[in-house]
Amino acid sequence: MPSVYIKTYGCQMNERDSEAVAAQLVAKGYSLAASEMGADVVLINTCSVRDFAEQKAVARMENVIGQARQKRPNQRFGFLGCMAQSRGQKLIDRLPDVDLVLGTQKFHRTAEYLDDLLAGRRSQVVDIGDEPGSQATIREHLPAAPGNAGGARVTAFVSIMQGCNQHCTFCIVPFTRGEERSRTIQDILSECRELVTKGVREITLLGQIVTSFGRRDYPEKEGRGAFVQLIEAVHAIDGLDRIRFTSPHPKGYGRDLIEAFGRLPKLVENAHLPVQSGSDRILKLMHRGYTRAGYLRIISDLRAVRSEMGVSTDFIVGFPGETEADFADTVSLCREVAYDMAYVFKYSPRKDTPAASLPDALPEEVIEERHQRLLAIVNEIGRKRYERFVGHSVEILVEGPSRKNPLRYEGRTRCNKIVVFPGGERHRGQVMSVNVERVGTFTLYADPAVIGLGLA
Q1: I need a labelling partner for 37 at 20 to 30 A (CA). Which of 104, 354, 359, 437 fits?
Q2: Degrees (nearest 5) of the Cα angle 178, 179, 180?
Q3: Which pLDDT tens digit goes with each residue over 140-150?
Q4: Strand pairing of 393-401 and 409-413?
Q5: How far apart, in whole angstroms, are the C-alpha atoms of residue 264 and residue 266?
Q6: Nearest to 423 by CA among 455, 453, 394, 388
């Protein structure tokens, strides 16, 4: 059977989608290639959140096609995901050598369409239509995490829903992913239980707005919404040690979810809370649905429940009309919260979003300067947050060889700090304690002497 190489751009949802496609292809007899050079089929799973991500994906495909004309004339090419959804046939109009364009509700059709293309039953395929029930089709997993083929996986992403109804004015996701559609709790539990039987110790629940899970499908029970009901059900799975989730919306942090961090020990003390801006004026223009004060109350409540809570966020700088005073509000919020980590993005206008037509677009040089300034502050605060761990013992779940240095191993603390230490394959899947001796860039390095080895 042919070999396939899948390149993924974008978020953890995209990573999960790519893994499910890869697992489905393997189940059909395809093999996974290590690079474009050795593949019969090259698929690029795309992101549309920023223009740069789209341009990068197109440029990568143009380069692959250019090399194939000289060296691999029978190679096939496809775009999957968000950019495929938004551009559709236009991608083939621009790159006629592309054979396959599949939207965000069609990932599970990849093997079927590749079979047709390779057998000559079709010459090209563009499928970006809606498909009822597609939220339940992303459930297959590879036996080892991508890039970590040497051993069984310890952590796994589980997609619990698709789509978004939030309609932030800067965001194209509701157009590329569609309206919110949730899987059933029983279906999710079945997938989680199967993963645990295969050695998975930590599960991350995924959704565009993961805290919106099932809100139209499951009534409240004893004051607990559908998402907390799901977490409780996953928490009851024997053999599972940790639960995470991403990406939430601050509006989803109700009292039931905040209290869940205090009473469910498997729900780790880690909260990614995308704020985007510290200015109430900009938040309103973004249609975020909360104020700075409301956001700060959530942070305070979380840290009251778990004082060691690790908090990260997303910022957008350079939103249309953002003044220096607005940016100063973002900087002050960053310092007030003292994030462990933050992703800082430059505003990118997206076609057909309300923000794209707002007046007072900022010059690129202003956006770049603010981007660099905020990044420096994030790094400064983050380093201080990480330095608190030096000289202390931390509990980690060992995931496997370090991604940057395969001679060392890495694990993750409950509050989501990566820890690199001189371990071995015997440590994979262990919950263990190590002593932190130094700090890198958003990484902790542990003392060679393992303080406590074994299950915790």
Answers
A1: 104
A2: 120
A3: 999 876 655 56
A4: antiparallel
A5: 6
A6: 453
- pLDDT for 69: 84
Strand partners, 433: 395, 452
Amino acid at 31: S
Helices (DSSP H) in 264-405: which residue ranges? Answer: 280-286, 292-305, 324-337, 364-387
Give CA–CA dist 456/27, Å, rounded: 35
Q: Are 95 and 78 in contact (CB under 8 A)?
A: no
Please state, in angstroms and rounded to a whole number, the distance separating the CA atoms of residues 447 and 436: 6
Least confident of 16-25, 163-172, 401-410: 401-410
Listed as own residue / partner, the contacts of 370-376 with beta carbons closer than 8 Å and 24 or more positions apart are 370/317, 370/318, 370/322, 370/327, 371/317, 371/318, 371/344, 371/345, 371/346, 373/331, 374/315, 374/317, 374/327, 374/330, 374/331, 374/334, 374/344, 375/344
Determine the Cα–Cα distance for residues 423 and 417; give it in Å rounded to an integer: 17
The string of pLDDT tens digits covering residues 32-59 is 999 999 899 999 999 999 999 999 999 9
pTM, two decimals, is 0.94
CA dihedral 208, 213, 214, 218 (to 10 degrees): -170
Helix H or strand E encompassing 410 = strand 409-413
Identify residue 295 by its one-letter amino acid code: Y
HSE-CB at 360 with a 13 A cutoff on CA atoms is 8
pLDDT surpassing 60 at residue 107: yes
Q: Residue 231: what are its φ and ψ, rounded to 5°? A: -60, -40
Q: Within a 10 A sphere around the Cβ of 248, how many other Cβ atoms?
A: 21
Backbone dihedral angles phi then psi of residue 269, each to the nearest 5 degrees? -80, 75
Q: How far apart are the C-alpha atoms of 161 and 13, rounded to whole Å?
A: 10
Cβ-contact 154, 144 below 8 angstroms:
no
Instruction: Give me the amino acid identity at 144.
Output: A
The four Cα atoms 143, 149, 150, 153 give a dihedral, to 10 degrees, of -40
